[in-house]
Amino acid sequence: MRLARMAIADLENTIKIHGIDCEWSLDGKYHTAVSARGVKEVLEPFARELEALGEPYEWVDKPGLVKKIGSTHFTAAVYTPGGALLNPAALTRGLADSLPGNVTLYENSPIHEATFENSIHLKSVNGSVRGSRLIMATNGFSEQFGYYPNRFLHLVAHCSLTRQLNEDERKHYGIEKPWGITPANAFVGITMRYTNDHRIVIRHGLNYCPGQRVSESMQASVKRRHKELFDKRFPLLPAVEMEHTWSGFVCLSQNSAPGFGQLAPNIWSAVCQNAMGVTKGTFGGILAADMACGIHNPLIADMLSLGEPSLLPPRPFLDFGARARFMWEHWRNQHEA
After folding, report:
1. Which of 93, 187, 207, 317 minimizes the number of CB atoms within 10 Å of its CB?
2. Predicted pLDDT at 146
């Protein structure tokens, strides 16, 4: 909780200082369940945990949730204030645009060769970079640089964004305030956002993907599936199409620990956010930078207390096990689809 709140506060302060237009709003989120079983197994224990921690929350039943998000698909939700909704792409661009003058940013420059002996030497197609210290922030791709071998489960998550609702559709929909929801089960459930510019974002589909590549045919299939899911949840908006569909690669550790800390005398790491990249990536990156600069930050001890990613079985046993587990999770939790 300390780490997450530090990250939210730091981002909010940075956004204000640099005037980053990323639709930042402290509107909290709804943790939703589709079925009565999901309410009993997930929402009720979650609410009890919040009570034990003294954290504010609101129990939202189906009629109240319909008024908040405009969909009858969900049975109940736990609303937690304090979290922020934002446009992560706009945030990333804004952070890049507001870098200080002594920083040079290179984009679209994949590294093909890396040497870590004595000093850091990274080679790309059109040039190379040398330095005395490095922060590894390559998430699941860190294995390709020789770090955290056989520690990460590689997943792909799929997302779609609708076109903007027109004026008539917005009146018919009847919801003006932006909202965000997360599902009781991330494997079969759906994460959604209603954005400030009147679009609906859908994140559905979490699959094992050790190759970290997605084909065009899969993207097309995902787009069709997201349209079906949208129509099921918003039947009063049948003409609204998916305007953009994309996929993102995330990595998980078996014990949910981050890949954080000092890897070598001149290399520090902030990777493996376990699919919660904005918050965990923010505090992991800040604390890795503090470590690299020799700055004492008491939150570094909190971060180190989370442990290190545990070792996974070797492939192909890992592939068989991961795919079997995913199939089991989808079957066992289909009530939350």
Report:
1. 317
2. 93
Confidence of residue 205 (pLDDT cuts 50, 70, 90): confident
Residue 167 lies in a domain: yes
Residues 6+ apart with CB under 8 A from 177: 27, 68, 194
For residue 33, give both structure tokens. 């369940």
Q: What is the mean pLDDT of residues 179-191?
A: 94
The CATH number given to whatever domain includes residue 174 is: 3.30.9
Tokens of 250: 């995330």
Pairwise CA distance, residues 259 & 174, whole Å: 44
Q: Is 328 exposed, middle or buried (0-12, 13-18, 19+ CB in 10 A)?
A: exposed
**What DSSP string runs through 87-103?**
-HHHHHHHHHHT--TT-
Instruction: Please give the tally of structural domains in the chain.
Output: 1
Bridge partners (DSSP) listed for residue 32: 77, 183
Rounded-to-integer distance, Cα 173 and Cα 236, Å:
7
Q: What is the DSSP string of 293-312?
A: TT---THHHHHHTT--PPPP
165 vs 51, 190, 223, 316, CA distance in Å? 38, 20, 18, 46
pLDDT at res. 117: 85
Residue 43 lies in a domain: no
Residue numbers of the domain that contains 232 = 132-278+290-337
Q: 313-317: which pairs have CB atoms within 8 A and are 24 or more residues apart?
A: 314/150, 315/210
CB atoms under 10 Å from CB of 318, counted, come to: 16
Rounded Cα distance between 6 and 147, Å, is 27
In whole angstroms, what is the distance from residue 150 CA to residue 221 CA?
30
* Residue linked to tokens 């180190």: 304
Angle between helices 88-97 and 2-18 (to 10 degrees): 60
Flag whether 147 is in a domain: yes
- The answer to whether residues 298 and 290 touch, using CB atoms and an 8 Å cutoff, is no
pTM of the model: 0.92
3-class DSSP assignment, residue 290: helix
Alpha-carbon torsion (86, 87, 92, 97), positive or negative: negative
Mean pLDDT, all residues of the chain:
95
